[in-house]
Amino acid sequence: MSFDLERIWKSKGEYRRRLAVLPLAAKLQMLDELRERALTLRPRPTGIPPSPREVISEQPPDYRANQG
């Protein structure tokens, strides 16, 4: 990691210019993605179960031998 402040300011300026020319729809999409990320990282209040989207579930394999 570099602590060259001049380089950091230059990089930030370039990034801001690139963002400025993006269409509004692209900026709104970025906001949606950032919001989803923030919600994912936010700790869940106690007592509230996770939503079905947040739960990973798998069906166990059937190890029983066929009888017959």
Give the % helix. 40-55%
Q: How much strand content do the residues show?
A: under 5%
Q: Rg from C-alpha positions?
A: 23 Å
Mean pLDDT: 83
Multimeric status of the protein: single chain
Topology:
Elements: H1 5-20, H2 24-41
Describe, in short, the structure shown:
The protein has helices at 5-20, 24-41. By secondary structure, it is mainly alpha-helical.
Structure write-up:
With 68 residues, the chain is mostly helical. It has a domain at 1-41. It has helices at 5-20, 24-41. It is elongated, with a radius of gyration of 23 Å. The protein starts with a helix and ends in a 27-residue tail after the last helix.
Using brief descriptors, characterize the structure shown.
single chain, 68 residues, mainly alpha, 2 helices, 50% helix, 0% strand, elongated
